[in-house]
Amino acid sequence: MAEQPQWWVGTDESGGIPNPGRPDVRPPAHWRLEAVAATERPRQLELSPDGATIAFMLDRDTSDVWTIPVAGGQPSRITTGRPLAAFWEDGNAVWSPDGQRLAFTQGGKVMVVAASGGVPKEVCEGSGPAWLDDSRLIIGVDREERTVLAVVSIDDAWPQPIARAGADYVAAVVSPDRTQVAYTVFHHDDLNCTSLHVVELATGESRTVVHLPGFQLRSPAWSPDGTRLAYAGEWPGWYEVFVVDARDGTAPRQLTAADADFGELAFTADGAALIGVRTRHGVADLVHIDTAHGEVTVLAAGGTWSSPRLLPDGSVAAVHESFTQPARLCAVSPQGAITELFAPVPAAVRVAPHVVPEHVAYHSLDGTEVYGWLYRPPGASAGTPCPAVVQPHGGPTSVTGDEWDGVAQYFVDKGYAWFAINFRGSTSYGREFERANHGVWGVADTHDCLAAYDHLAGLDWIDPTRVAIFGASYGSYMALHAVVDDPDNRFACAVAKYGDCDILTSWAQGDLVGRLDLERMMGHPRDARAEYAAGSPIHRIEHLEVPILIAHGELDERVSPRQSQELVAELRREGKQFEYVTYPTEGHGLLRTEPFLHFHRRLERFLDWYLLP
């Protein structure tokens, strides 16, 4: 019987011999993709002014605003129908000073809703709301490919700019006395620079606090008395913590020298310390930082901690996940005891066995040391070597760390090894490593992917004839390069999920954020045509010798679906073996349940056909 059409699938076609699937392959013993899809993600925690209630976003059937009492109790869904949003670039919901309202963004607009529930009110177009007082917000307003800061009343939606220039104003933080706003500036004429500034709201006077050309900073935080600003700056080689006088612009004082990336900083009530997150090699600890001497104390180690917020009793509320634990809301006591506040984990996932990967260092083709997390399935041995999947992450300025990956666990339970690699360009290995792919997209970092195969091929429990490469976004771009620009044809097949094939045409097709990020690392194409050509595997598709699965959301604004169309047209001209599927409801991320399940079942069928014996 022919397969029935499904509304969430658009194009579904293939070139070459169709893949009929494996009727002899059964699901893994302990995992189901339906359980992975049903695992909700609480994220972006914010604490009410009285410290009694947490607001957070929850990715479920939507990405709505929820609240839950810190003391325990049932969560409340405050909004309904907020569209699913990618967790890696969505905003949070912020409390008004009186704790009566929450502000958030939806569809490019700033919204306000009563914290007790009700119908959200649209304020105006904008982003990144921060409360100035109980009736006014600081927001970002986009005009002519720039973002300016503005004040807007929730009852009079005419934004009044407070800071503007040829740059993007982001990360507005209101001072404790609500007379000043600290903000960071992303400079369009220096794309590797973020600077820190303060504006006096009464006069509109703005002053530069920290500006080092060519370097980034992040996570500004006011001291309780409004005299100092803490932030994390990368010029020591990592995002170390600094404190600066917010009034006179004296030289910043470096607090930490930990060879780690700090972020999400907040002062304690007495101003004597900071809480924050310290990340090194993809492992993110919750930490306490003494502001007098810079001593760092770990409050909760390992996994990935985010959104730390101080509770009135000295505990810290935060989001936590790890290789063995999906995202949850927790409270961490000063003694390090962890209390689970909300963990929406399906029972099937909670009881399923989880494999903890090994952090691996290996050498690329040019000798550079690169890294990855290697999952070894139970039972794999020299006598029964297993197939493997190499997975480069997206970004590329990102990292695969100590975080939950249900898809990896599913395939490991099937008997696959899974190698999530952190190629050059990844974060949390230092600034030098993070910038090592600048100007060499698709060349040096592709060598890191090929060397990942070589590392696996040297292990007696891996079958080197059955290794695939699979990635999404920049990881998809890496996967395509790895099977086009490899004369040794290391990989048996590849999977390219909403990725680029031609970074020159992608530069012109994508959104502003993606375009500037590409220029930040590769320069403008008018000045780097040879580098853009070397980084575009579309020009060398004739070298592809293995099957490839291509998937793309038709609403993708970051990497246009025209990238996959361009790739498929060239594959068809060259007579290559491919499968191609699109999803009409999806953007940059297959977020809805039906497309998520369809793609991963298709991925499973593809890998089983080309890799299993």
Overview in brief:
The chain is an alpha+beta fold and 613 residues long. It contains 11 helices and 37 strands. A 9-stranded mixed β-sheet has the order 1-37-36-35-34-32-33-31-30, with helices on both faces. A 4-stranded antiparallel β-sheet has the order 2-3-4-5, with no helix packed on it.
Provide an overview of this structure.
The protein has 613 residues and is of the alpha+beta class. The chain is built from eleven helices and 37 strands. Helix 5 (444-457) crosses helix 6 (474-484) and helix 7 runs antiparallel to helix 8. The longest helix is centred in the C-terminal third of the chain and has 19 residues, at 593-611. The chain starts with 11 loop residues before the first strand and ends with a helix. The model has no long low-confidence stretch (mean pLDDT 95).
